[in-house]
From TrEMBL:
Gene Ontology process terms (BP): methylation
Family: Belongs to the class I-like SAM-binding methyltransferase superfamily. Cation-dependent O-methyltransferase family.
Keywords: Methyltransferase, S-adenosyl-L-methionine, Transferase
PROSITE patterns assigned to the protein according to its UniProt record, in alphabetical order: SAM_OMT_I
One Pfam family matching this protein: Methyltransf_3
Organism: Arthrobotrys flagrans (Nematode-trapping fungus)
Name of the protein described by the UniProt record: O-methyltransferase domain-containing protein
Length: 218
């Protein structure tokens, strides 16, 4: 199971206990969503690491509900775990719509089944096919250019801290040995710097798991 370790705490034992504490005292995920994450882990093994963490899913649920979100576009559905959390937030909202995209028909099939089982398939649609494989910068510029987000609309981007490599990609960080993560670092640095400088938005980087950038349109 993917976990969050806050460096503030002196060791893994304390960090794990703290994580359990704040997870248990934050808005819980409904059981069927937790079970879906368990099932993904059981069926897909290491690949299940692609899911957002449980805590991130709790946060997405809380945030979508707090924002009064009505329409959500997700790029990267995988088996539908994060989409289920978002759907939970929107299930009683009139006219709600969630579009989630993915290139993989096999995980897409798992997601579609989960949306049906959860009774949210009437407003959650999976679009199968390749989104343009590109960087967060291009997605951000496209979304802003097309005006897809209303005033106070929010874009959330995951993994913006990339195992700490965006801050320090020298030998001091053992994650530098992860060639895939390292290859993403320049794009994420560019993205984070762009957000920090862009006067059209306000950004807050929340250090939940590997960093969520929250970008609110002014
Ligand atoms: C990190 S996972 C998403 C995890 C999901 N949000 C969750 O929490 O369960 C990223 C997904 O993006 C999909 N993907 C990768 N490249 C893509 C592309 N060019 N177009 C559409 N989907 C793509 C992958 O198949 C994978 O399922």
């Amino acid at each position: 199971m993917k976990d969050e370790i806050a460096v503030l705490y002196p060791n893994e034992t304390v960090s794990t206990a703290v994580l359990k504490y704040y997870r248990e005292r934050s808005l819980p995920l409904p059981d069927h969503i937790g079970r879906h994450a368990d099932l993904t882990e059981k069926e897909l093994g290491d690949k299940s690491e692609m899911m957002v963490s449980r805590l991130q899913a709790q946060y997405l649920l809380w945030t979508a509900r707090s924002l009064g979100a009505k329409k959500i576009l997700e790029v990267g559905c995988f088996t539908g775990f994060s989409a289920l959390a978002l759907a939970e937030a929107l299930k009683d909202v009139e006219g709600a719509k969630i579009i989630t995209m993915d290139i993989n028909p096999e995980t897409g099939e798992i997601a579609r089944r989960a949306f049906k089982d959860a009774g949210v398939d009437h407003f959650v649609s999976l679009v199968l096919g390749p989104a343009e494989k590109t960087s967060y910068v291009t997605y951000f510029n496209t979304i802003m250019g097309l005006g897809l987000l209303r005033q106070d609309g929010v874009l959330i981007a995951d993994n913006v801290l990339k195992k700490g490599l965006v801050v320090d990609a020298s030998e001091v960080n053992p994650n530098v040995a992860d060639a895939y993560a390292s290859s993403k670092v320049p794009y994420l640095q560019e993205f984070n710097d762009l957000l920090a400088a862009d006067k059209r938005v306000e950004t807050f980087i929340l250090p939940v798991f590997d960093g969520l950038a929250l970008v609110r349109v002014l």
